């Protein structure tokens, strides 16, 4: 199992764009976007893989974002502010 404290790994990059949005990109998908307002957008790009989920959780740990993405019974979920939210669509937005 790979490390989960910092975003790293094959085909992965992290950068802040000109609008101040922190982007975690895995292959061509911005799997995590953190806006200056605190809003967080998670995007699977249609790829519900272990690595996609790992990159999302690495970002949560590295940037102390307060969420956790997990899979249970073939479904994806996000723990956020004490709640478990279904992650049924391609994207989910988490507002601070």
Structural summary, described in words:
With 96 residues, the protein is mainly beta. The protein has one domain (12-94). It is built from one helix and eight strands. The protein has one helix spanning 50-62, and strands spanning 12-16, 22-26, 29-34, 40-43, 67-72, 75-80, 83-86, 91-94. Strands 1-2-3-4-8 form a five-stranded antiparallel beta sheet, with helices on one face. The longest helix has 13 residues, at 50-62. The model has no long low-confidence stretch (mean pLDDT 94). InterPro entries: Gp90-like. It holds the Pfam family Kyano_Gp96.
Short description:
By secondary structure, this protein is mainly beta. Helices cover 14% and strands 42% of the residues.
Number of strands: 8
Secondary-structure element string: EEEEHEEEE
Helix content bin: 10-25%
**What is the average per-residue confidence, as pLDDT, rounded to a whole number?**
94
Strand fraction equals 35-45%
Unreliable stretches, pLDDT < 50, 5 or more residues? none
Shape annotation: globular
The main sheet orders its strands as 1-2-3-4-8
InterPro entries: Gp90-like
Secondary structure topology:
Blueprint: E1 12-16, E2 22-26, E3 29-34, E4 40-43, H1 50-62, E5 67-72, E6 75-80, E7 83-86, E8 91-94
Antiparallel strand pairs: 1-2, 2-3, 3-4, 4-8, 5-6, 6-7
InterPro entries: Gp90-like
